[in-house]
Every structure is written in structure tokens, then in C-alpha cells.
Amino acid sequence: MTFTAVARPQVPAASRRVSHGGGFWVIATAFTVSLAFSTLPTPLYGLYQQRDGFPTWVITVIFAAYAVGVVASLYLVGHVSDWLGRRRVIVGATLVEALSALVFLAWPDVAGLILARLIGGAGIGALVATATAHLSELRLVAKPSADPASSGLISSVVNMGGLAIGPLIGGLLVQYVAGPLTVPYLIFLGLLIASAIAVSLVPETVARREERPAYRPQRISLPRAAKPQFFGAATAAFAAFAITGLFTALAPTLMNLAFHEPSKLLGGTATFAVLAAAAVAQILFAGLDTRPQLKLGFLFMAVGLVVLPVAVLTSGLWLFFAGAVVAGAGIGLGFRAAVATAASLAEPAFRGEVLAALFLGAYAGLVIPVLAIGAALVWVSSSVAVVLFSALELGLLYWAARRILPL
Q1: Are 237 and 338 in contact (CB under 8 A)?
Q2: What is the pTM of this model?
Q3: Into how many domains does the chain fold?
């Protein structure tokens, strides 16, 4: 690793305006706001489609632009806070999210939507690892005797919880306010700017070097003996994020095509159900070891992937929501356990690089399957597309389980 985490902030005590304990919650709140903004457009895609008349596959391209931005940013700048400082990177990433909101407002055509999502993804890619590290370090200073796993759990819940509330807020605003394609972005523009100001008052936890190291993209190193289990964990993360991508990109569209329910609030609620279940499951099963969490994660995802196509084929709306909740619980447990597994396989000097590889694989799950579904919808019905998606996902989960949970 190329950073030095310290137990005290690197600013004079007189200039410190927020304690480390208070700073922890400021970062958690700012992280939640940015993540919520990243899923806010989910219920809005259908409105853009109705207004401009573009086909469903365009929605998947707009959504995939976000994931491409995350992957590129994670690879190029996800590690720079190790020497540039956590606070500076979080402030910058939050302002990048605010820029994305401005693009949504100023250029609401398809090209503008793609650019806005690409910019938003770049901000999240820079933010996700940095905010997670900053939360852990602030907690260590504020409560040095606390269990380190508690900050990891809070980070995981913030991650899934932030993603969950975005589509719910978007759905509510679409349903009940005038100007549904402007008001949500104006609200979050104000929240993001306020978050950036608040983060600027939080203590730094990384010692700045006098000489800045030469820049390089994130390297990815894998211990040879750990490769089978690592690729199992990465595949599990890919599959989990693919399910997430299905809902965050296409839930409102599926509500309309498969269930003939045009309500954007209902589509946003379906996405909220998946991500909220992921956050709640992480809390409920936090006491389990990694291996039992993995087993439950695989089981819940598999059950959800069986229930979802049955619900679509039978037009069973509430069965669809039940499958979403079960699959969401599997996503939360499976992804958290996959991260823990990957971290345990790496030597300390290479842990960051191994986790970077895992996150890159996970976010690839947001791009490839969603684009594939969008292409499939050109030729097949939504029901057939969901069945094919579920079958491929079950195959991935079986492959991953054989490697990460050897008999």
C-alpha cells in the first residue's frame, strides 16, 4: 500500500471544526446522499422514454454509462486518496456528483443523459473505496476499543441503504410533484453541495507526504494459490451486481411490460425492496461467519432467481416483489461475504489490489448483463428475457459456489 493511516488528523487542533466521531457520521451521510443520487433516475427513465419515444435498449445504454464510469474511475483514481488524502477526494467526488445533477438539468436529451450518468459513475468510483476507508479510520480514532467489524457493517449498510432510498425518493417525487424531470435533480444538487461543504470540515486521516508519488493506475495482483477462490468470489460479486443492475435499470420498464403497471412509484419501490433487503440482511446475519453468509447468500439469490421468472410468466406482481426481497437478501450476504473472502486470501501488502480486482468484477456485472437484456428485448418479450437472465445467473452462481465453497 502507498499510504500511511494515522491515529490523529493532520490539521491543527484549532482548525478542527468536527470531531472524529462527528466526522464519521458526516461522511456516512454524504456517502448515503451520493449513492442515493446514483439510483435516483431509476423511476425517471420511463418518463424520458415516453417523452422522446426511444426503445428500451436505450435505457440500458444510459444505465450502462454509469457502470462504465464507475469501473474506469475505480481503476484510474480509486486509490489516489492513499496519498492525496481522504477528505479532498471525497469533496471532489461529491462535487462531481453535483456536476452530474447539473448535466441532467441542462441537457435532458439522450446524449445528455448518457453523459450525466458517465460523470455520476466517475464520482461514485472515486468515492466508494475512499469513503469506506475514511469511515474505518475515523471510527478507529473516535472509538479505538470498538470492534473494527462494526465500521465495516455500517459501511455496508450505508452502501446498500443509500442505493435503496434513491429510487424510492425518485418514485415518490415522480408520483406527487410537478416537474418530475427537474425537481429531483434540484433537490439533490442542493444536498450534494451541502454534503461537500460538510465533508470539508471533517478531520483528515492520511498523512500527506512532502513528495507526491508518481501517479499510476490501480495495480491488480493475485496470489497464485488463491486464484480459484478469488475468481469464485469475483463471479459471485458479478452475479449479485447483475441482479442489482436488472432492477436499477429496468424495474419500472418491467412493471409496464410484464405486469401492465405504469406506476413509476411501483417500479422505484421494487428497486428499493431489493436493495433494502440487502442492507437488512447484512444487519440480521452480521453475527455469522463468512462461510455461512456465503451459503445463505447463494441460496437466497438462487431462490429469488427462480421466483422472479415465475412471477413474470404468471403476471404475479406480489410474487415478483417476494422474489425481489429474497434475491436482495442474497445480494447483501453474498457480496459482503465475497469481499471478506477476497480480503482474507490476500497478503496485507496486496489486499487493496485484490479488493480492487473484486470491485472491478462486481461493477462489470452492472454493465454486461444489463446491456445483454436491453439487446434481447429487441427480439424477445420481457418474460423470455427475464427467464434467460435467471438461467444464466443460476449457472454463474453454481460455477462460483463450486470454487468459493469447495466440497
Answers
A1: yes
A2: 0.85
A3: 2
